[in-house]
Amino acid sequence: MASSSGPLNEELQCSICLDVFTDPVTTPCGHNFCRTCLSKCWTNTQTCFCPFCKETFSRRPDLKINTTLREVVQHFKEKLDLGESEVFCDICDERKQKAVKSCLMCQSSYCDDHLELHLRVPRLKKHTLINAVENLEDYICQKHERPLEMFCRDDQTCVCLFCTEGEHRTHNTVPIEEESQEEKTQTDEQQMIQKRMKKIQEIKHSVKPRKPITSNDSFLTSSRTVHISNGMIIGLGVLLVAVLIIFPKQYTKCSSLNSLSHTKNWTEISSVSDVYVLKRALTELRKTHETLNEKISQTGLKFVQKFAVDVNLDPDTVNPYLILSDDGKQVSHGHIERNVPKNPKRFDYTVCVLAKQGFSSGRFYYEVQVKGKTGWSLGVARESINRKGEIILTPDNGYWTVWLRNENQYSARDDPSVSLSLRVKPEKVGVFVDYEEGLVSFYDVGSRSHIYSFTGQTFTEKLYPYFSPGLNDKGKNSKPLIITRVY
After folding, report:
1. How far apart are CA 78 and CA 419, in angstroms?
2. Does pTM surpass 0.70?
3. 129: region left, alpha or beta (phi > 0 left; psi from -120 to 50 alpha)
4. For residue 432, what is the enclosing H or E element?
5. Which option is the CATH number for 101-179: 3.40.50.1000, 3.30.160.60, 2.40.110.10, 3.40.50.170?
6. What is the pLDDT of residues 445-478, one digit of tens each?
7. Residue closest to 354 by CA, chosen among 461, 484, 466
C-alpha cells in the first residue's frame, strides 16, 4: 500500500508485512502484528515466538483482536483516504470496464456484460459472487485454492471447506456469514452492557440497608444455623437487579424468574424468603445459560444441512432379498427372494439399493437413521457401476461409502480401507457431497460430529445415494435403514 508508506506511523505498521495493521493482535510480550501475518508465521511450527523480539511462549497464546488499536488504524486510514482502488473486468479485451462482482470459484472479476453468464448458466449460478475486490487472493485458501467460506473459531482465521476436513477437522468452524453476524451481535451486546453497568453502579450506591434482618439474625436450614448480614442480602439484591438489567428477556424466561414480583423493589430485601427466591432465581438463570451455551455449540452441521435434498429408493435397482416401504423411504433385509422383473439396473447379488435421484453438479446432503442396526453401508455410487455379482466397495470401483460390521466395527471403504474409531454409536448418519470439489463427507447427526471424508475425488458422471441395510443376521439386524427429514 504505497500511499501509506510515507506518513505511516511506526506504531501502526506490522513488522511482518510492513503495511498498516489489519485486525491487529498483541502478543504476551507486547508487540503488535496483523492477525493473518502472525497466524502464517506460526503455521507448521511447534514453538510459537514473537517475530519481533524472538521471545518464545510455552504454549500458543490465545490472541484476541486489539479493538482499540484497530479503531486507531481505521481512523488513520480514513484520514489518509486509503480506500480500495477501482477493480476492472478481467475479461474485457480493449477498453476495460469497471467490475461489479468477483467470483471466488473462477477467481476473476466481471463487468455487468461479462457477469451475465454467471446469472444465467445453472452451473455458474452455483458459484460464490462477492462485491468486486482487487485482492481476490485474500478470499482464496492458498493451500487448497478454494473459497474461504468458513471461519475457525479455535484459530480465529478464515478457512475453506477442505481445511475443515483436514487440519481444522476437530476445530469449531462455522460459515463466515454466521461468524460476522455473531461478532456484530456481540459488539452490540457489549455496548449495551457497558451502558447498563453504569445503571447498576447507581443502584448499588442508592441501596440502603433495611432493619428487619440484622447482622445477628439467623435461621435454620438443613440442621445448620446460617447467619445473614445486611451486606449479604443487599449484595444478592443488587446481583439480581444486575441480571435483570443486563440479560435480554429471552435469557431470563425461566420459572423462578417469571415468579419474581415485578412490582417489588428487589434492592430492598426484608425477609429470609426473599433470599431463597433470589438464590433459586439465580440458580435457574445459570441452568438456562448452560442450556443456551450447549445449543450455540451445536452448529457444526448447519452449513451442509443447507443443501438437503429429498431422495427416494429406486425399486428398479433393489436386490430381490430387500424389502422397500411403500413411500420409498425405508429398506430392510428379508428372508425370501422376491420375484422381481429383470432389470440391467438391479443389484442381483449384493443386498443394496440406489436412490431414484442422481446428481451431476453442485452440493447435496441427506440423512439416514441407522438406530438399532448391527450392520449397514451408506454413501454414493456413480451411475456406471457394476451391479451384477459380487461388488467391492472402493472409489476406484465407483463407490464412496462408510459401513458398520459386527455391531461396533466402523470403516471407510477407501483404498486401502480405513478403520474408524467413533466415540459414540451413531443413530443417524448424514451424507454430504460437493460434486465440483470432489468431496464426500459423513456426519454423526446426533453428536453433530464429523465421521470421515473422501477428498480430492474426480466425478465425471451422475452420483446416486447408496444404501445397504446388511443381512438380517437371524433378527439381530432386522431394523430398516430410514431416509429421514433434515431439520
Report:
1. 56
2. no
3. beta
4. strand 428-434
5. 3.30.160.60
6. 998 888 999 988 999 999 999 999 999 888 899 9
7. 466
Q: Is the pLDDT of residue 30 over 50?
A: yes
Distance CA 359, CA 431 (A): 13
Task: Please classify residue 186 by burial: count the beta carbons closer than 10 Å to its beta carbon, then call 0-12 exposed, 13-18 middle and 19+ buried.
Answer: exposed
Nearest to 333, CA basis, from 464, 466, 477: 477
Length of the chain: 487
Pick the range with the lowest mean pLDDT from 13-17, 23-27, 351-355. 13-17
- Strands 108-110 and 101-103, by their bridges, are antiparallel
**Residue 208 pLDDT level (bands cut at 50, 70, 90):** very low
Please say whether the beta carbons of 183 and 166 come within 8 A: no
Query: Residue 412: pLDDT band by 50, 70, 90 thresholds?
Result: very high
Q: In the CATH scheme, what architecture does the domain 302-484 have?
A: Sandwich (2.60)
* 2-79, CATH topology level: Herpes Virus-1 (3.30.40)
Q: Are 340 and 323 in contact (CB under 8 A)?
A: no
